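Page 47, continued from p. 46.
Same chain as before, 65 aa.
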Amino acid sequence: MPKMKSNSGAAKRFKRNASGGYKRGQSHLRHILTKKSSKRKRQLGEMLEIHANDVRMVRRMLPYG
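Result:
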């Protein structure tokens, strides 16, 4: 049986944590930063856990992750 392929786009965006969930970065922190407040930029830098409804989909895209 051949190995399953991971979705390479998903592999770059999601990381598995110890509790079995997945964490993700937030968008809107790449450019046009001058008009965004320091507080907003700081909060966008945090990693968040993905929603429970999306875990099944991410798990299928990352069979070994």
